[in-house]
Structure formats: C-alpha cells, structure tokens
Amino acid sequence: MPKALITGITGQDGSYLAEFLLRQGYDVVGMVRRTSTINFHRLMHIQDKITLVNGDLLDQISLIHILEEHRHDEIYNLAAQSFVQTSWTQPVFTGEVTALGVTRLLDAVRIVNPQIRFYQASSSEMFGKVREVPQKETTPFYPRSPYGVAKVYGHWITVNYRESYNLHAVSGILFNHESPRRGLEFVTRKITHHVAKIKLGLAHELRLGNLDSRRDWGFAGDYVDAMWRMLQRDDPADYVVATGETHSVQDFLEEAFGYVNLDWRDYVVQDPRFMRPAEVDLLVGDASKAGRELGWEPRVTFAELVRMMVDADTKMVEDGGTPM
Ligand code: NAP
Ligand code: G4F
C-alpha cells in the first residue's frame, strides 16, 4: 500500500486529495498544526480512515520527525497562508510559511529519504500582471502580492532541489479552483454563501471589492486528480492545471444570483475594504501539456460549479449547519 503525506489536509484541497488517495488505495497521513480549537470539519467523514500527525511548516524538526516515523512514498505540500488579501497585512508570516516552508520540507526530504516524490502547490498568482495570454508553463512570472512572491520562491526552490539533488520534485501551477468546501473568505464562496442567505431572507446585501477581475475557475475535485497524476510519472516536470476559460467576478455574480432568480445589482455593494493594493486583472491557463502528458482534463463546467456551490450553501444554511 503506497503511503502519502498531505500537508494542509484540513484545507479545501487537502480534504479532496485525501478522499482521492483513499480511493486509490493509499495509506493517507495528514499533517495538522496545533490549534486551540479543532478544525477538522472538512475531514469528519473520513477521519477514521486517515492518520493525523502534528507538525508545522514553521518547525523543521517536526517535519523531519514525521518523515522519519512514517516513511512516505509521496508528499503533497498543500499547506500555505493561502489568502492573497491577508498577505499584505502579514507579509513576513506569509513568506515564512508559503515560501520558506517549502524549503524546510524539501530539505527534510533530502535528509530523510531523497526517494520520496514531492508535489508543490504552486499558483497562477505567480503570473500576476500577465506577460502573455493564456498563461502556460513557460510564461514569465510577475507576482502582484506578497503571496504571489512567496509562491514564486516555493516554485523555484522546488525546481532547484530537483536539479541540485535529483529529487522527484514537481510543481503544479494550479489556477483558481473552488468547491462547496472553499473558505468563506474567497470571492466565489463569499458570493454563493450570501446568495443562499439572501434567498432565505437571512441577509440583505453582499459587500465586495473589484468586480472586473477575471479568473480561470475550475472544480477542486478535478484538480487533485492532476496533482496525483504528476507524481505517477517517472520523469518529474511542472504543469499548468486550468480550464482554459476565464470569467469576471461579475459573471460569477450573474450566474449565482441568476440561478435563484435574483438580480445581483439589487444586493451587491462595492466596498473599498475589499480592494487590493495591487490586483491580478486576468488569469486564463493553457493546460494542454497536462492534457498531453498526464491525460488530465477538467470535468465540471463553470455553470455546474456555481450551481453546485449555491446548492450546497443553500442546504447548509437551511440546515443551520457549520460552514465547511
Ligand atoms: P486552504 O483551504 O487555505 O488550506 C491551507 C492549508 O494550509 C490548511 O490546512 C492550513 O491549516 C494549512 N497551513 C497553513 N499554515 C500552515 C503551517 N504553518 N503549517 C502547516 N499547515 C499550515 O488552501 P487550498 O485552497 O486548499 O489550497 C491548497 C494549496 O494550494 C495552498 O498552498 C494554496 O496556496 C495553493 N493553491 C490554491 C489554489 C486554489 O484556487 N484553491 C490555486 C493555486 C494554488 P489550518 O486549517 O490549520 O489553517
Ligand atoms: O477569491 P479570491 O480571494 O482569490 P485569488 O486572489 O484569485 O487567490 C486564490 O487563487 C489563487 C490562484 O490564482 C491561489 F493561489 C490563492 O491561494 C487563492 O486560492 O479573489 C479573486 C478575485 C480577486 O481579483 C479579488 O480582488 O476576486 C476579487 N474580489 C472582489 N471582491 C474579492 C472580493 N475577493 C475576495 N476574497 N473578497 C471580496 O470581497
């Protein structure tokens, strides 16, 4: 039975990847950091099938201990301070976790077992002020936030450890991917959660920032499959993972409110608090290399994704449940 370590298992992608690897017959170990309140809500349905261990990307000793104790075949490094807006108010912390955390983990791999295959969660935020459209593996980076800068570091240190130490280390450059398990602070989930509350009479407005930025939004459940496929190849390489379609925040509003027969213009208020010091205006990826070499393609369409999220939030709000 192959054994995998997932850092960031309590997050959106971590929970989908854990489910996916269990279905593939893996022994799944998830690294969680110590918190005063347990936050395993995305994992409750599989908690008895996985092993959770304590560790933190800020603490290299913890990483070495985990790798020595569990002897993994594959590591998926999904842990990060992943919210772009917060990276302006906590730039040093973001760098410590999202940039240097990658080096700590790669170096633990080098020390404990250089045969481990390593996946780094890189991001389309690295393209920032885009140099070409659509963006592909060879497009130069121009990050626009401390988060984007940290991800560029994480990307290049992964390439560097591959080239310096011959590690099987790969970087997946994933474009935005969403789901009913997306954090409530990200724009898609913020919208679908508010749509559900407004529809049920529990909220009356939705305050947002820039409605013009465009993103290539896919479904997280599709994207974890691409992560796994990257580590199954004997020849390590980096891949863009995207749908190839781009939509504005306003398009998302139209689709989400329209689905429940409401007009977003009656509820949305633009609020400068949610504007960013520097914006990424347009992202759209070219995932043809992943199609060719990994046989990967997205399954869920934009409209299906929006409706899936509105439906899930409506059910959750009706049930009075905890947000995933
Ligand atoms: P997420 O929901 O925000 O999850 C982030 C995870 O990282 C959480 O499990 C969090 O743990 C953990 N974490 C944060 N700091 C840590 C630390 N110091 N040590 C150990 N764990 C720590 O993010 P996601 O959307 O699943 O994204 C997964 C990864 O893909 C991230 O690296 C993100 O930057 C990257 N990415 C995401 C997208 C996207 O559209 N979703 C696109 C490209 C790249 P807690 O639960 O304790 O906070
Ligand atoms: O949903 P967002 O916060 O995602 P963003 O900044 O694109 O980052 C996400 O995708 C990256 C991949 O490209 C990941 F690496 C990263 O970890 C994260 O998962 O914002 C999307 C867009 C932005 O242009 C933002 O300015 O929506 C705009 N927006 C407008 N109003 C808002 C809001 N974003 C948020 N979060 N909240 C708003 O009220």
What would you say this structure looks like, in words?
By secondary structure, the chain is of the alpha/beta class. It has 2 domains: 3-177 and 217-241, NAD(P)-binding Rossmann-like Domain (Rossmann fold, 3-Layer(aba) Sandwich), CATH 3.40.50.720; 184-215 and 245-283 and 300-319, UDP-galactose 4-epimerase, domain 1 (Alpha-Beta Complex). Helices cover 40% and strands 15% of the residues. The chain is built from 10 helices and 13 strands. It has a 7-stranded parallel beta sheet with strand order 3-2-1-4-5-6-11, with helices on both faces. Strand 1, helix 1 and strand 2 (27-32) form a beta-alpha-beta unit. The relative contact order is 0.13. The mean pLDDT is 98. It binds NADP nicotinamide-adenine-dinucleotide phosphate and ligand G4F. Residues 7-8, 10-14, 33, 35, 39, 56-58, 78-82, 97, 121, 123, 174, 176-177, 183 line the site of NADP nicotinamide-adenine-dinucleotide phosphate.
Write the SSE topology.
Layout: E1 3-7, H1 12-23, E2 27-32, E3 51-54, H2 60-70, E4 74-77, H3 86-89, H4 91-112, E5 117-123, H5 146-165, E6 168-174, E7 177-178, H6 187-199, E8 206-208, E9 214-215, E10 218-219, H7 220-232, E11 239-241, E12 247-248, H8 249-259, E13 268-270, H9 288-294, H10 302-319
Parallel strand pairs: 1-2, 1-4, 2-3, 4-5, 5-6, 6-11, 7-10, 8-13
Antiparallel strand pairs: 9-12
Residues 82, 84-85, 123-125, 175-176, 185-188, 190, 208-210, 213, 215, 249, 274, 276, 279-280, 283 line the site of ligand G4F.
